[in-house]
């Protein structure tokens, strides 16, 4: 069974870059037709899809976040990473990694000075 686990700092200062890693176990980021996404949920709001990296390595981003978002992967570690630049308090959210029906437990990231 595929398991996903997010990791990264829980507090980021405004204007800095948020970096999160998702470690995949029980599966591979190169498995055909799997897409590996980052999704977030700000407090009191709904889920927001941020972007994804495909099994092929191709990346896809939400138009509203594309200018600040980068998703990459390390196939040797079976991990994929989110970087969100120039963060503001509005980027405070629970961040999830996801693929198909598999979700990480989520990690709280707060943007504050």
Major sheet: 7 strands, mixed
Give the tally of β-strands: 11
Secondary-structure element series: EEEEEEEEEEE
Quick check: average pLDDT? 97
**What is the CA-atom radius of gyration, in angstroms?**
13 Å
Overall, the morphology is: globular
**Structural class label:** mainly beta
Percent strand: over 45%
> How many angstroms does the end-to-end distance come to?
39 Å
Number of helices: 0
Low confidence ranges: none
Salient structural properties:
four-stranded antiparallel sheet; 113 residues; globular; seven-stranded mixed sheet; mainly beta; single chain; 0% helix
In a nutshell, what does this entry contain?
With 113 residues, the chain is an all-beta fold. Helices cover 0% and strands 51% of the residues.
Could you explain the architecture of this structure?
The chain has strands at 3-7, 11-12, 18-25, 35-41, 48-54, 59-61, 69-74, 79-84, 93-99, 102-103, 107-111. With 113 residues, it is mainly beta. Strands 2, 4, 5, 6, 9, 10 and 11 form a seven-stranded mixed sheet that branches. Strands 1-3-8-7 form a four-stranded antiparallel sheet, with no helix packed on it. The protein is globular. The mean pLDDT is 97.
Task: Set out the fold topology.
Layout lengths: L2 E5 L3 E2 L5 E8 L9 E7 L6 E7 L4 E3 L7 E6 L4 E6 L8 E7 L2 E2 L3 E5 L2
Parallel strand pairs: 2-11
Antiparallel strand pairs: 1-3, 3-8, 4-5, 4-9, 5-6, 7-8, 9-10, 9-11
């Amino acid at each position: 069974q595929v398991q996903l686990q997010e990791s990264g700092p829980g507090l980021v200062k405004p204007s800095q870059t948020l970096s999160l890693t998702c470690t995949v176990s029980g599966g591979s980021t190169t498995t055909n037709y799997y897409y590996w996404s980052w999704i977030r949920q700000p407090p009191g709001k709904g889920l927001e899809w941020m972007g994804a990296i495909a099994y092929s390595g191709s990346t896809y981003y939400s138009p509203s976040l594309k200018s600040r978002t980068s998703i990459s992967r390390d196939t040797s570690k079976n991990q994929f990473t989110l970087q969100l630049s120039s963060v503001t308090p509005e980027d405070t959210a629970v961040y999830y990694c996801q693929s198909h029906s598999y979700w990480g437990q989520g990690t709280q990231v707060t943007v504050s000075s």
